[in-house]
């Protein structure tokens, strides 16, 4: 009887439960589906991002490869004055420039491991008082008690190092495939002994000359009897011995410190080596003779003296930086309707600098006018300290600049006049003497129309009044010293070249634009120098 009453309710409850369970099952299924979809979506996103990253890296590697193969400037930096016609591969290889550095194709495993071990030991702290493993006793052992955390970090460091080494080897393998053809091209080009490849004077480019023309021009310069003389014997050993004895004496009397003596004392000296840099901005491409003084008996002494005397060459007329010069032009306030631009160039300045007069100028700036000590009958040891120091410095300047000998084309020469361009004292002597010339002629030049004067070594940029007599200005400059002679170039089409810039005059507002030429360093070169670009200056 009770069963008859209970069954209907039980049936309803069962139906309700089944219905509710079905809804719950569906709800759970929906929840699970949502979770699975989220997981799938996250996986897809992660995989997509990873593949995009790989694709971007592959694109970067391809771009790097194309940079090495096809890097070139809008205007080729190659100036080919030879008869050789360059192939496309040779042109692309040379357009990288003479300062281009390829990446290293060797991985130094031993140095890498040693550096990582040193880093790890430094992080942990030394467990031995000995700073060098060679000093350790044979039975002494170094042990490190690492914590679990340190062991974990050491494992991570090891994995990171292994990953780095793998990437390094892959990169080297990739670079090698790109670089080998370029290196092979350059080596084949270097085998051609009929051409001479060099850099130009004052600007960045690659110049190719006929070797015979190069040798002829250099020998024409070196055969000038007043400036150079050919030698039969090498005087290096005698000059080195003479300087060694003098430096020891100067150290003993306290004129040189111990460190200065050790730095300047010559050992194993060799003659200088001469070469020529072509002036590609001049008609006929003349050469500027350079004497590389590295390794000569007086090279380090010249470096020391140049550093000690560098404050004597400062002058407001000297151009130190092209970009500062451009900004200075931009700030000039002149009525340009009545001005002209002129460039004066000093002929063979370094071989014409009067050494005796320049040395006297240096000594006067350092010690004042010469005293009577040097004219008296007193022994040099009894002179005043200024006169003694003046004498010793003069001796050092003389031996650093006079009678410099060098080799060119297996012949030995001696420079009898001027200072060698390539000596650390060369630019110093040139600037000091020309500063003196400018100071003596400034009033006359200003009276004859000079408004603005800037100079970089032997090149002068000048603004003058429109009615100024250029020939008279040239005569004034050439009248000061018969050995220091100037040439002149006037503006053409309101433009004139100065160093690595072209200056154009309109209303004298200065605008700076890019010059399509060889940059100082290509971006994919492994010698990371700040990329600077040459400029065309528009003076409106």
From TrEMBL:
SUPFAM superfamilies: DNA/RNA polymerases. InterPro entries: DNA/RNA_pol_sf (IPR043502), RT_dom (IPR000477). Residues 258-522 form the Reverse transcriptase domain. PANTHER family: REVERSE TRANSCRIPTASE, REVERSE TRANSCRIPTASE DOMAIN-CONTAINING PROTEIN. This is Reverse transcriptase domain-containing protein.
């Amino acid at each position: 009887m009770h069963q008859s009453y209970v069954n209907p309710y039980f049936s309803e409850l069962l139906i309700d439960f089944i219905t509710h369970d079905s809804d719950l099952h569906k709800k759970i299924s929906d929840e699970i589906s949502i979770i699975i979809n989220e997981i799938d979506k996250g996986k897809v996103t992660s995989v997509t991002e990873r593949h995009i990253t790989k694709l971007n890296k592959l694109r970067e590697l391809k771009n790097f490869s194309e940079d090495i193969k096809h890097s070139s400037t809008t205007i080729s930096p190659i100036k080919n004055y030879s008869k050789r016609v360059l192939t496309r591969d040779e042109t692309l290889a040379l357009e990288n420039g003479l300062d281009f550095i390829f990446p290293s194709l060797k991985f130094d495993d031993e140095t890498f491991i040693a550096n990582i071990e040193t880093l790890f030991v430094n992080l942990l702290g030394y467990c031995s008082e000995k700073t060098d493993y060679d000093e350790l006793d044979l039975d002494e052992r170094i042990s490190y008690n690492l914590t679990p955390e340190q062991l974990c970090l050491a494992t991570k460091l090891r994995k990171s190092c292994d990953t780095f080494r793998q990437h390094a080897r892959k990169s080297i393998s990739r670079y090698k495939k790109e670089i080998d053809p370029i290196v092979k091209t350059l080596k084949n080009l270097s085998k051609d002994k009929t051409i001479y490849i060099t850099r130009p004077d004052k600007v960045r480019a690659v110049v190719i000359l006929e070797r015979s023309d190069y040798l002829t021009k250099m020998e024409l310069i070196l055969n000038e009897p007043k400036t150079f003389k050919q030698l039969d014997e090498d005087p290096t050993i005698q000059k080195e011995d003479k300087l060694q004895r003098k430096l020891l004496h100067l150290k003993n009397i306290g004129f040189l410190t111990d460190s200065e003596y050790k730095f300047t004392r010559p050992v194993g000296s060799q003659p200088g080596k001469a070469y020529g840099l072509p002036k590609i901005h001049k008609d006929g491409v003349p050469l500027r003779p350079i004497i590389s003084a590295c390794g000569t008996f007086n090279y380090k002494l010249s470096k020391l003296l140049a550093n000690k005397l560098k404050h004597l060459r400062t002058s407001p007329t000297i151009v130190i930086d092209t970009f500062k010069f451009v900004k200075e032009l931009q700030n000039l306030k002149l009525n340009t309707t009545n001005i002209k631009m002129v460039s004066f160039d000093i002929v063979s300045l370094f071989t014409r600098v009067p050494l005796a007069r320049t040395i006297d100028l240096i000594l006067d700036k350092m010690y004042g006018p010469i005293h009577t000590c040097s004219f008296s009958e007193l022994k040099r040891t009894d002179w005043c300290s200024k006169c003694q120091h003046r004498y010793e410095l003069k001796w050092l300047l003389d031996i650093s600049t006079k009678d410099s000998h060098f080799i060119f084309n297996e012949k030995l020469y001696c420079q009898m006049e001027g200072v060698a361009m390539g000596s650390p004292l060369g630019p110093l002597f040139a600037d000091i003497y020309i500063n003196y010339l400018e100071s003596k002629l400034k009033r006359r030049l200003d009276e004859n129309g000079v408004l603005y004067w800037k100079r970089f070594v032997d090149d002068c940029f000048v603004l003058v009044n429109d009615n100024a007599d250029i020939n008279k200005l040239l005569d004034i400059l050439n009248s000061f010293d018969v050995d220091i002679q100037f040439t002149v170039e006037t503006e053409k089409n309101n433009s004139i070249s100065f160093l690595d810039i072209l200056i154009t005059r309109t209303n004298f507002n200065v605008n700076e634009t890019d010059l399509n030429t060889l940059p100082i360093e290509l971006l994919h070169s492994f010698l990371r120098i700040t990329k600077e670009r040459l400029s065309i200056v528009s003076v409106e």
